[in-house]
Structures are given as C-alpha cells and as structure tokens.
Amino acid sequence: MNTIYLDNNATTNIAPEVLQEMLPYLKEMYGNPSSMHTFGGQLHRRVEEARAKVARLIGAEPEEIIFTSCGTESDNTAIMSAAESLPQKKHIITSRVEHPAVLNFCKHLARKGYRITFVPVDKRGQLNMDEFRKTLDDGTLIVSLMYANNETGVIFPLMEIGEMLKERGILFHTDAVQAAGKIPIDLKKFPVDMLSLSGHKLHAPKGVGALYVRKGTRFSPYIIGGHQEHGRRAGTENVASIVGLGKTCELAGENLYNEMTYLKALRNKLETALLKLCPDARVNGDTENRLPNTTNLSFEYVEGEAILLRLNEFGICASSGSACTSGSLEPSHVLRAMGVPATAIHGSIRFSLSRYNTEEEIGKVIEIMPGLIKELRNLSPYGRQKL
Amino acid sequence: MWDYTDKVKEHFLHPKNIGEIENPDAVGEVGSIICGDALKLYLKIDKETGKIIDAKFQTFGCASAIASSSALTELIKGRKLDEALRISNQDIAEFLGGLPKEKMHCSVMGREALEAAVNNYRGQPAAVEEEGRVVCKCFNVTEEKIRRVAIGNHLTTADEVMDYTKAGGGCGECRAEIEAILKDIWMLKKPEKPAVPKKLTNLQKIALIQEIIESEIRPGLQADGGDVELVDIDGDKVIIALRGMCTGCLMADVTVKKIQDKLKELVSEKIIVEAQ
Lengths: 387, 276
What we know:
Largest sheet of chain A: 7 strands, mixed
CATH topology of the largest domain in chain A: Aspartate Aminotransferase, domain 2
Oligomer: heterodimer
CATH architecture of the largest domain in chain B: Alpha-Beta Complex
Distance between the termini of chain B: 47 Å
Radius of gyration of chain B: 23 Å
CATH superfamily of the largest domain in chain A: Type I PLP-dependent aspartate aminotransferase-like (Major domain)
Strand content of chain B: 15-25%
Radius of gyration of chain A: 22 Å
Structural class of chain A: alpha/beta
CATH class of the largest domain in chain A: Alpha Beta
Helix content of chain A: 40-55%
Structural class of chain B: alpha+beta
Number of strands of chain B: 8
C-alpha cells in the first residue's frame, strides 16, 4: 500500500536534491569547520554558502542568520535573548494559539516573575487587534507572534503589527516555522527583529533550524560554549544538515510561486469536495488569510483519533486536534481559543499538503473519507448520519 | 502513535454488535460528547433466566473506546447478569490483549456502562457517579470513582489515576487531592501537616493575598483569556472581580471556588472569596 502523506505541517520528507547535497558531509567530508587543516576548515565555506541561501529565501543578510538545532531552540533563544538584553522589562505579549515552543516557554517565564499577556483570537483564528493594541505598555519587552498557525494555517497581520511595534521601539519576534518557504517573506520590508524557521517542515532533515536576528538588535546567546556562529550559538556545526537547510531554502525560493498555486488548488479541491460530501462538516480558520497547503476540518459526532486510524488503514496520514491524539487529555488549545465547540474539536482533522502530493492522491482521499465518516457516525450515539 | 494490539485494531476496524436494540430491556449511558468519549449500551435480557440474550452499543470516541465497547458486548453476551457484573475493566483490557496505560479509562468506561445498564434494568439510579464529592472538576470525576478504580486496578500514583479515570488530566489543580486520596487508600504515610502559619497582621495578610493573586492565580486565568482583579479585603472576606473571558463563563463559580481554596491553603482557613 502506498502512503498518502498529508501531514506536512508535522514534518516533511527530505527532498531528493537535498539529501544528495548532504551525503558527502555524512560520509567522507566529516571534518570540523573550525579546524585549521583544509580537511575540516574547507567546510566553513559550505556552511557560509548555506547561510546565504537561507538569508536569500527571507530577504535577509547572511550575517543575520544563526543556525540552531530546531524551531523550538530558535523560539526559546529569541525570547531569552530579549529578556537577557533588557532585564528591566518584564512584560511579554504573545497569543493564545502559539506553538508550545513559545507558549510553554512564556508560561515558564511567568513562573520566573514575567507578566505574560496571551492575546485572544476571534472565531476565525485571527488576532484580536483591539485587544492587542491595549496590551502594549512601556514595560513590554517583546511581542512574539507566529507568522502562520500550524493547526489551521491562519496567517496573522504581522506587517501592521510590525509597524506599530517599530514606532514604539518594542522588540518583535515571529515563529515562521510554518510560513517560511511556503509564502513570500521579505525581511527588508517586514519590520520584525527576530524570526524562527525550521528545516524539517520544509523538506530538510530534522535537527536543524535557523534564527534570523536583524542587524543592530541586541543579542544574547542561549547555548554557551565555543565560538561557533560568531559566539551567538555554541556547538559544533551540524554541517550536513546546515547544507541541507541551505539547499532546501534555495529550492523553496525558486519554486515558491508555482508551488503556492499548485498547493492551493489541490487543497481547495480536497476541502470543497469533503465539505460537499460530508454533512455536518466545517472549516476551522480564516480561509481568506491562510497557508496554501493547510486545511483544518471538523466532522461533528465523530472522534478524531478514530478518523485518523481508519484513514491509516488506507495509508493516509493526517492529524487531529482531538484530546485522544494530544498525548494529554486536553483537546487543541488553538481550536479552543477560537471558540470552536468541543464536539467539533474532538472531530477535527488537519490535512497539510506538500509539493510531493498529487491530484490522484487527493482524489483517493475524497473517495474514501465520506464513507469512513458515515461509518463512524453510525457507530456513534450522537447524530446518526442519514444518507 | 498509540501502541494498540492487533485485537484492539480488529475490534476497532470491525467492531462487533454495533447499533441499537429495539425495545431494549436495559440501557446504560456513560460519558459525554464534551468529554470526548461516550458509550450507550443496549441489553436484551431473558426475564426467566436473567441471561443477557443480546447486547449492542453505540460509541463516540477513539479507537480504544470503540474496541472496548465491542469487547464488552462480546464478553457479556450469553451471561447471567450477576456473572456479567463480575467482569472488571481489566477483563475488558485483557480480552483486547491489553490497552496502552493512557487508554485504560476506555475499559473503565465499558465497565461503567454495564453497571449503568444493569442498574437501569433493576430500577436503580443509573449512575453511581453522580453521588459523592467531585474531585476533578474538568472531567467531573468523584472521589468515590477514584477510590473504586484505584483499588480495583492497584493504582498508586496520580498519573495512573489520570490514565484510568481522566481525573487530573485537565487543569491539574486536583492532583494534590488525588495524591492524598491515594495515600489514604494505600495507608501510606499521611502528608505532614504544614506548619501552622503564625498570625499575620492585617497588612501582611493583604500583601500575601495580593501576591498570591498576582503570581499564582492570574497567569493561569490569563492563559485562558480571563483575568481577576482584587477589589477589597474586609477581615477574612476577599472580594474579587472576574474579567475578560471569565465574565459570564459557565465555570465562573468553579473559578471563584478554586481561588478560595488556594487562599485557604496559603493564607488562612477562614478566607471567604466572593465575586463582585
């Protein structure tokens, strides 16, 4: 059975071109870029080439890019760096729908005496701008808001927020792990001080990420040790993965427009068909401002884990915001913050596509899903589906 | 991904005895769609022999909830009621070749549905659950259920109790209480009483209450879009105002109670909290 992988916001396959580029550094070219000998030292240049490619994707300067181990490290570093640089400021603003890498780090800082404002979102998952404006004050250290939401794909109006914060001199960080390489980002125009991205969401391997830090922003390292990354992030460079991240950013940049068009059409086809064929289904999230590859659908009267495991029987991979799949007993904090009814959260399914998905695969999901939902509804004591 | 046995997968993908029984002799309903799983069990019972002739179910829930329901119906069919009642949640789990520990509450739900159906048949109140003090407010779990399941399954930690009953799996505020119940059950050393705080001056008391509200209470509420403001302190009476999402929230009373419990614990037993 072929796998139909529609869980690309969780992680992605490594692009063949990326793997090809990486292989020499996993085999014969295993040196340490910090070494004095050519064998190791020559790798320094490969790392710098990768840095330039990452910078190009987001319209940054190479020296503004710091390689890290993952998106979470980038997020933690950005917020901690702000806290270390401006110790007198104790107020952090974020949103209620952030990734745990930001949300739980902020809760951690709350226990250390920081005041955290979690800005609410409306029922489309869009930031409540009136609330946001009200929360800014002179003690605000940093605002950290995600570029696009991992569960719903909703894109925040960061340009407007960035301008506002720039005027008031407040640091601004964005977790762009889901957005980078999927939608255009140009940091020359977009006023943000720090931006996180991750390799494995974009067809590079797991274990590599990057943090953009705008020139002139005060920075304090999170991981302390050697002089790597100009003293901004210690630890021997993960050369192969860094090379992979560079290549993947290059590919994403080259194909951005075509890919967006392709994914949007494919996603819309899937979404429209499922809403049409499955009664009592809905889309969660602002469909006007959304990543082209993501759709989050709720099917009433059925539970998400049951849907996922039935899909699994057909080799179809997706994910759910239901409590049963979260590893805790709490359903998705994102959908809860949006005021999605509990019943619809339990039956929520996220499909996230990539360039490797085909029309044929989407057709197969459209063929299988409605019958599967109907079957599970017939098992349920609530809302038996009449068809 | 959950490590389900082949038997769980089989009973999830091809569940036995699904649907309703027309004119059932007994119906047992447990769980709710809000909590994420619910099971409705229908029984046909031979009045002469007291045997379960037929059993069917409808379940809203995850794979293990559906598999547990299917297993339950297979286990009880053809048995006399008293015999069926001896089937424990472990028997359901064992029938399925085991369940991941985080999913044991699904087997507990199966056992409870059976009990509810038999009670229904015998004209007794449907659920034992509704009696007793609610410990876990998020999932509405009573002390009695915690004790029953903990003893029946040899649970000794709060995490295990969560896996089997969901209690403590929401906001987590009741975990200390669950641990106290477990200590009581297994006759472990009683938690030492915290040293009696020395009498606070009014000024110290006000400062302490302010600090607790700022550092212990507000961050949690704010994370859920709510907030609380300290309005006044009059002797032992603390007057607060709920703000943001807390206003008009169905759980507002619970929130006020939680704040009161916290202040009772950390400031004085006499504290009474009132919302404005």
